[in-house]
Amino acid sequence: MKIALIGDVHANLPALDAVLSDAHKRGVEAIWNVGDLVGWAFPDEVIKRLQQENVLSIIGNSDVKVLKVKEKKEEWKDKTPPEKWFAFNWAYDKLSEPSRQYLNSLPEETRLEIEGKNI
């Protein structure tokens, strides 16, 4: 089975589209994402694209921070560099509720057996 492993997309939709296009040209049968889907450019669009492609994803540390930005506001705003604080808030605000729910539903890890191999 040919698998493409991606990660740290950080909402870069043009780069994701390029990688997915290349993966399809190479005959990839499955795409696995190791987290950090969201970030600064196109967070909602990236999640929708990954869902459209049936990409198997786990949640990354940046994804968790974006999801928790509203509840951790007081705790984080003085401890987080201003550019990161702005980026987490911006990404959260740009995510639709269904995308937030999807992101929140992702596991921290996934264990699979493929062709007799544990992954």
Describe the structure.
With 119 residues, this protein is mainly alpha-helical. Helix content is 48%, strand content 12%. It has 6 helices and 5 strands. The protein has helices spanning 13-25, 43-52, 61-68, 73-76, 82-94, 97-105, and strands spanning 3-6, 30-33, 56-57, 113-114, 117-118. Strands 1-2-3 form a 3-stranded parallel beta sheet, with no helix packed on it. The protein has a two-stranded antiparallel sheet with strand order 4-5. Helix 1 links the parallel strand 1 (3-6) and strand 2. Helix 3 packs across helix 5 (82-94). The radius of gyration is 15 Å and the shape is globular. The two termini are 13 Å apart. The mean pLDDT is 94.
List keywords for this structure.
globular; mainly alpha; 5 strands; 119 residues; two-stranded antiparallel ribbon; 3-stranded parallel β-sheet
How helical, in percent, are the residues? 40-55%
Structural class: mainly alpha
Inertia-based shape: globular
Poorly predicted spans: none
**Sheet with the most strands, sense and barrel status:** 3 strands, parallel
User: What would you report as the Rg, rounded to the nearest angstrom?
Assistant: 15 Å
Q: Give me the number of helical elements.
A: 6
Output the helix-strand order.
Answer: EHEHEHHHHEE
- The residue-averaged pLDDT reads 94
E-strand count: 5
Oligomer: single chain
Percentage of residues in DSSP E strands: 5-15%
Strand order of the largest sheet: 1-2-3
Distance between the termini: 13 Å
